[in-house]
Design brief:
The chain is α+β, with helices and mostly antiparallel strands and 321 residues long. Helix content is 42%, strand content 24%. It is built from ten helices and eleven strands. The strands form two sheets. Strands 1, 2, 3, 4, 5, 6 and 7 form a seven-stranded mixed sheet that branches. A four-stranded antiparallel sheet has the order 9-10-8-11. A hairpin with a 6-residue loop joins strand 9 and strand 10. The protein is globular. Bound molecules: (3R)-3-hydroxy-3-methyl-5-(phosphonooxy)pentanoic acid.
């Protein structure tokens, strides 16, 4: 028996960092990259983890209890109804044989594309289906959020939400998910600096700055919120030509939060100079990815300009809703 599940990457269009402080953010799935989990019966007893991308081959009980993959698997087991799962667990995970969980991902880690949340979502889906209890999107998102909290301190929850629902999301921390409509498709070019930048550290630095200058930072976050709201309206009304200027404004505010970096600046400038309608860093910043609003006709040319300016890789993605 085998179950398989894949989850996309994601990119934040508007509102990163301010979203941690209750402001809205817009994020969309990126299906060109994905995490996949396969759960299959194994003749060996126990639960075997295979994650060749990170060189991990181990029986579950040999991993440290706070290993991210252990946390994900435990979260699934504790979420299933106790009256239903023990016999199934026994059948699949005990007795004569066990199970293997194989994990693979094409999402670069620590780069703002949601690799951690996508791996969690894929495992939660594949494992709950394997145990005969496939979980609905809402539960999948909540469980992935619990795991994010263990590793990211105070995540807003935007990653697990957009990845579990695999739809464009207007996200406000702690509020029910709002999916937004895309009236007219638009094309985004993603440029990866190739610099891994753990979100937790950057979020922590912004918190210190906010604590030192709360009035100034609250104003910055309010301006970001206005931009996110305008962007949502523009996307819903098919006025995608307005998005470029909004990206540029959002980027200026992210610079004020000190989360840009020389490499991100170089790529943002290169995209604008090569004809993008707007560009900004995306995600935690200080590394990771930037995005640019491009027209399909000049996407390849701007992509080449980013690669020349040091981008490790680029992805062209069309947002259709
Ligand atoms: O795209 P990432 O995973 O780097 O996300 C960071 C988004 C932040 O707003 C900076 C943090 C968060 O939890 O929302």
């Amino acid at each position: 028996m085998m179950t398989t599940s894949s989850a996309p990457g994601k990119i934040i269009l508007f509102g990163e960092h301010a979203v941690v402080y209750g402001r809205p953010a817009l994020a969309v799935p990126v299906t060109q990259v994905q995490a996949t989990a396969k759960v299959m019966t194994d003749v060996r007893p126990g639960v075997w983890i295979e994650a060749p991308d990170v060189g991990l081959f181990s029986e579950l009980s040999r991993l440290s209890p706070d290993h991210p993959l252990v946390a994900v698997i435990q979260s699934v087991l504790s979420a299933l109804p106790p009256l239903v799962f023990p016999p199934i667990i026994f059948e699949n995970f005990g007795g004569a044989g066990g199970a293997t969980i194989h994990i693979a991902s094409t999402i670069p880690v620590a780069s703002g594309l949601g690799s951690g949340a996508a791996v969690s979502v894929a495992i939660i889906r594949a494992l709950s289906a394997f145990l005969g209890q496939p979980l609905p999107d809402e539960r999948v998102s909540v469980l992935a959020y619990e795991v994010e909290k263990l590793h990211h301190g105070t995540p807003s929850g935007i990653d697990n939400t957009v990845i579990a629902y695999a739809k464009p999301v207007y996200f406000v921390k702690g509020q029910p998910i709002e999916v937004f409509q895309v009236a007219k498709p638009f094309t985004i070019l993603i440029g990866d600096t190739g610099i891994a930048s753990p979100t937790k550290a950057v979020v922590g630095d912004v918190r210190k700055l906010w604590e030192a200058e709360p009035v100034r930072f609250e104003k910055i976050f309010d301006s970001v919120a206005e931009i996110a709201q305008k962007a949502r309206k523009a996307i819903e009304n098919g006025e995608t030509h307005l998005l470029g200027a909004l990206m540029n404004e959002n980027h200026t505010l992210l610079q004020k939060m000190t989360v840009s970096s020389p490499e991100l600046e170089r790529l943002v400038e290169a995209a604008r100079a090569a004809g993008a309608d707007g560009a900004k860093l995306s995600g935690g910043g200080r590394g990771g990815n930037m995005i640019a609003l491009v027209r399909p006709a000049n996407a390849e040319e701007i992509s080449a300009a980013l690669l020349e300016s040091g981008a490790r890789r680029t992805i062209i993605t069309t947002i259709t809703g």
